[in-house]
Amino acid sequence: MTDARSRRAGRATSKSGIPGAAALISAAALLVTAAPAHAAGGGGNDGPAEVIPGKGTSTPALVDGIREAAASSGSAADAARGHLAGKRGRYRIAEPARDLKPVQTLTSGASETVRLQQKHQGVDVLGGQYVVRMEHKNGKRVVTGTSGKYFTGLKADTRAEVSEKLAVERAVAATLHDLAGKRLAKGDAARTKGATPSARSLTGTARGLVVVPKGPGVLTHHVTVRGTDPATGHPVLREVYVDAKAGYPVLQYSGIKTFGGGTDGLRERARAAATDTSKAAARAAAGPISPGVAGSGVKYDGTTVELGLVKDTARNEYVMTDYARMWDSSKNPVTTWDARGKEVSEVEGRWPDGIKEFGSPTPSFGKDATEAGAVDAHWAAGKVYDYYKKVHGRDSLDGRGMAINSLVGVTEFGGPYVNAFWDGTKMVYGGGDEDYKTLSADLDVVGHEMTHGVVEHTANLVYAGQSGALNEALADYFGNAIAVDAAGMAMDDPDAGLLGGNLCRSKTPRQCAFRDLNDGRTTSKNFLGVGFGTDNGGVHLNSTIFSGALWDIREDVGRTLADKIVYKALAEYMTPLDGFTEGRDAVIAAAKALGVSAKDLNAVQRSFNAHGVVPNWEQALGVDTDLLSAKLNTAGTEAGAGGGWWTASRSNDDGSEAYSVWAGRVDGSGAPKLISPNDGRYHVSPATDGKTVAWVAYGKAGTDVLSRPLAGGPVKKLYGTDSATVYNVRVEGGTVVFDTGDILGGRHVGYVRTGDKQPTWVDGGRAEVATALPSLNGGRIAYATVSPEGDAYRVGTEVLDLATGKKAVMGQLGKPETVGQTGINATGVFWLVDETPDDKGRVAVRRAGLDGTGVADISPEKGAGALRASELTASESAVTVTDAQPEATGYNESLPKLWQFAADGSSRARVSCNRGEQSSPAAAGGKQVVWIDATTGSTDLVTRTRPAGTCG
């Protein structure tokens, strides 16, 4: 391996000092809070205890290199808590017996690893987990090290003021808004009449109170939202944390893990466990009669392999159920099920009705099982089980011999499903398409998904932001390690680091691969700051930075040693909120604990350095924008601009306070003004015309639309509701316009003028009509609408003249399926429109005169340069849209970026070349735009006065 480092020199360059890089987005400030500072000192194999302090806590993030006596009798958990109690001066944990609940004890030979969940006044702390490592020999225990997150600064009151019922309603509403809030479709009108079966397509389940560790802590209701997207029919599973004092969703992310990812729209995976009534659970409970027989089958690559089977006498068939592997432990099976014809929505988080184990009249399975991917799935599941058992002594995914179930051949809307996932109890593999084989046809995919199960039963890394990227990195590392070794590939083979490289039917492995562990990505050059709405905060986008470092370690120190180091780090050191720095610390500490040579330890450290994973790597990146307000620390809110002013929601440095509305000048002069009252409510989604600011306030009593003059004065309540949510506030002169959404997904635009006691609804409040996505200019409101037209529904755009009360219907070039955000200026109306739903989400940017004539596209839906736009804002001279191109070849290129057009469509350019996600644009006049930018790892409010160009 002497040439490995030089061979990689072109892929990742070692850094000295601190590289500039993006930290985790502040949409999950809890993960920023959890990132530890790195302490010098200690660290030698025989030196004094190494102590790495935690950030935002007095409890160390890691203590290593100690041998301190612990209680020899009693449980390992009691001994662990006794050690922490006896060393209060070091750990600052006042009452370990009260505030730390044992969740797992892992025993491997003489070693014992105890995981303890933090409680705050009896309430679980999200990600608060502390690990104590011990050795137990000859009846005596010694503690060898500790690590994790214990938040000592928590002071939150744990008495909820918001009911579970309201929290569930707010969680479902927030999920609906994320799914469809930026578009209006035919179903948005039909649902309000109960005309479609998807009217209640999303349901929420309260999971109990949880303290989110932001600053002194935020008490939340944890709600799991599941069901199907009412607009697309895609399955949904969302973890939402709703402030239990004010009812605002402060944190939400998808609870779904897939092999594919990034922002390419591949379906997500649900984590909910299958019920005990499932056929798999019933069969496992019945128990085997014998370990079964050896059969065979042919994999996709033509290789004949041995398969573990049993004879099902009721079916008179040999079925893919292998009891032999766990015959001497739990006697649970490894089983492969025929799920062909089952929709992905039927199998995520549940057990589908009517499926059977793959069967054959003889022990030799034929072509049908091969083409379905069953042979590959069954063989590969056994290989992954064997790897963890033989190399790491781990009995199945949970370490206690759990049953392993694989479902093969799943479809999506009756068509191909090109993805795979683990849902907490089983693996699910799509059947592939004309380009891709079934997803089970590559061992690294199976290893990846099964490793998600191992991660879930060890560190349980939160699947969002850096911890989610670390989760993906570990799944990629072990999946590829298993596949490369099984194939007998050399570690320096150029294709050794490819994930999914064997899935293509005709393309080369490199053309086919989903990711490459040898892509040379680093924090300073490649880390992407994104919101949780994009790839759960970059879990796939950023994963190969860390997995690349692990893969380099495997090249340099050898396969077996590297695998043992990484597994030990996962099983004994990492905890749920660990990011890249904590992951590095865990791997280095595990290497020391295994007694590696100084040469190998240096190789481990060099690999992380080469990928920029070093202490304090989270530094600001260079940007081409002017900063208006740094670190907004907010989520689910938008920015506004007008009349030379900007307005945005902002929280405190750690994101623990309810959001407040601020306003400032778009030229950056003067100090920003606090506009909203500090009353414990969440003040979000503000808009301004340079004279007045209007916004939405969420509290336990309901949702209000408020306004206040920029010059000062009382806050006015314009509208209040206890049963709907409010979006898209716009203000001009004495008029404030907004749209509301109900729990069924119905949408209605309303406006309030000076002196009005109640809003006027542009659609007359008719249940069979939906209106949304308003814009306001010159006393006219433009909005998207869906209304009955015979037996069908018409989707379009209208303009209401407030002075005359007359409406103008915008002409159409085709038959829209959905309409997106509208914009209006003194001469025209602009909107996003989708007429071809199956064209990968591309939309047209359309323009018409104020009277609805002269309809034309300034950016067409089809052809070169077509956009997947989701947001739009217009000034008198320019139209700016947010566009994402998930199929782009580069990671950064796939993220939402701002494009600006001349109002007549004569020119087009990128607003900013910043790396990272750009969202919520607000036209500030002329070509100037204000927006929320995640490039630096924070949700920063930034601006440019003119476009940056092509960014080539």
From TrEMBL:
Gene3D superfamilies: 3.10.170.10, Neutral Protease Domain 2 (1.10.390.10). It comes from the Bacteria. CDD domains: M4_TLP. Residues 1-39 form the signal peptide. InterPro entries: Peptidase_M4, Peptidase_M4/M1_CTD_sf, Peptidase_M4_C_domain, Peptidase_M4_domain, Zinc_Metalloprotease_M4. Residues 38-58 are annotated as: Disordered. SUPFAM superfamilies: Metalloproteases ('zincins'), catalytic domain. Pfam families: Peptidase_M4 (PF01447), Peptidase_M4_C (PF02868). Keywords: Hydrolase, Metal-binding, Metalloprotease, Protease, Signal, Zinc. Residues 459-613 form the Peptidase M4 C-terminal domain. Residues 295-456 form the Peptidase M4 domain. Belongs to the peptidase M4 family. This is M4 family metallopeptidase. The lineage of its organism: Bacteria, Bacillati, Actinomycetota, Actinomycetes, Kitasatosporales.
